[in-house]
Amino acid sequence: MSFLRRLLGDRTPEGFAGSLAPGEDVVDSAPVEGGGHLVVTALGLWIPAGDGARRVGWHLIAKAAWADGVFTLTESAEVATAGSAVVLADRPPVHFRLPAPGKVPREAYQRVEGSIRTRHRQEIGDGGAWFVQRKVPGRDGSVLQVRPDPGTDVTLVEAIAEQVAAKLVNPAE
């Protein structure tokens, strides 16, 4: 049955616990040691979560790394807004051992990098922040994301981010 499903174009792994959006096709998947699958779609990376699966949009993946049979995912959380900019904070990395990774690590890396339109590092006070314009899967345009370094004055970062976002919307100002 699995071969027939793949032959007909359905790459969704058997037993996948997620609920794909209409038109959200599976590009590739890999079983995770201990249960579940990593599933690559145009909208994001589905990861095992509790008794099911949840999708992490490509624009919210800070880092996707592959080494020694382990896929490491660093997801970002949207913690504040500054004008039309979004302030991010990284969640702790999660690790998935993939006994048969297929093309999942490469596909995930390419989609994370492909979501980035521009990136700029700005030193701010005793720290700094990354300013990154990213395409949000399933939406037109891009969003300005700001990821302050730990210990950087977030109030100052938010003020700068609001100014940068306003200039991106109205470049003549």
Give an overview of the whole structure:
With 173 residues, this protein is α+β, with helices and mostly antiparallel strands. It has a single domain, classed as PH-domain like, CATH 2.30.29. It has three helices and eleven strands. The chain has helices spanning 2-7, 104-114, 154-169, and strands at residues 26-31, 37-41, 44-49, 52-57, 61-67, 70-82, 85-90, 94-97, 116-124, 127-135, 142-148. The strands form two sheets. Strands 5, 6, 7, 8, 9, 10 and 11 form a seven-stranded mixed sheet that branches. Strands 1-2-3-4 form a four-stranded antiparallel sheet, covered by helices on one side. The mean pLDDT is 90.
Number of strands: 11
Summing up helix and strand content along with how strands pair, one would put the structural category as alpha+beta
Number of helical elements = 3
Shape: elongated
- The CATH superfamily label reads Pleckstrin-homology domain (PH domain)/Phosphotyrosine-binding domain (PTB)
Strand fraction: over 45%
- Helical percent range? 10-25%
What's the layout of helices and strands?
Blueprint (H helix, E strand, L loop, with lengths): L1 H6 L18 E6 L5 E5 L2 E6 L2 E6 L3 E7 L2 E13 L2 E6 L3 E4 L6 H11 L1 E9 L2 E9 L6 E7 L5 H16 L4
Parallel strand pairs: 7-11
Antiparallel strand pairs: 1-2, 2-3, 3-4, 5-6, 6-7, 6-8, 9-10, 10-11
